[in-house]
Each structure stands twice: as structure tokens, then as C-alpha cells.
Design brief:
- A six-stranded mixed beta sheet has the order 3-2-1-4-6-5, sandwiched between helices.
- The radius of gyration is 14 Å and the shape is globular.
- 55% of the residues lie in helices and 15% in strands.
- The chain is α/β, with parallel strands linked by helices.
Amino acid sequence: MFAAIDTNVLVYAEGAGDARRKKIARALLVRLAEDRTVLPVQVLGELYRVLVGKYRVSVDVAKEALVCWSDTFQVRDSSWPALRSALDLAHAHQLAIWDSLIICVAAEHRCRVLLSEDLQEGFSWSGVTVVNPFAERPHVLLEKLLA
């Protein structure tokens, strides 16, 4: 099973947020199969913006974090068909275009799961289901992903 990672999971893994989420994010990322885990390039751009803008991390440290994550998981570019689908998704469900693009890139690369705290858990689009890895009770797809 392929999975995609949303920005918030990487932000927590980089040390931002509360101790519980940091611990969960780091443990989760270690357990994911590198060859079956997708990082939409949009996620890396958002991670850079959050680290430098919100958490005042130096540009060099933020850049190194992005390079490390891109060395660990499969980075996938946004395509014109994914953006076209994202426009429809954003309109149909009142989602931000950038969140929609992440979902559509995940779908384009056969991901069944998008690991995200920011979107509604259980929301599905084009075969991708949003799973909150920080939820009190693990989603059945998260359990299957990590089995």
C-alpha cells in the first residue's frame, strides 16, 4: 500500500508542536516503507515556509531538512492533470487549492492513504483516504499500512 505524507507530519517530526505529536510523527516516519511513501513536492515547499516563517529556523537548516526528507521518501512533482483535478476537488468540497493538490498528487501516484492531521479523517477522493496519525484510535488503514 502506498501512502503520502502531509506537511504537518513533517513539521512535528522536525520538532515543532507538542511532545506527543513529535513522538508519534517520528515513530511513524521510521516505520513507513521508503519505497512506498510519497512526498508531494507541495509538502516540501510548505515545510520550508513553516520552518523558516513560523518557527524562525535558518534557511540553511530548513533546506537541509528538505533535502533529508527528499533522500528518505519519493518526492513527486505536481502535474497539470493533478492541478486540474485539484481545482475540481477544491471547488466541490471547499478545500484550499494546496491541500487539494496534495490529495490529487497522492491519487496520481496510487496512494491509498494521505497521512494528515489538517484534513477531515476518513475523507476520500479518487482512491485516497485521509488518515490522522495523531487520532486517539488508529484508523484501520493506518494499521494496515504499518503491519
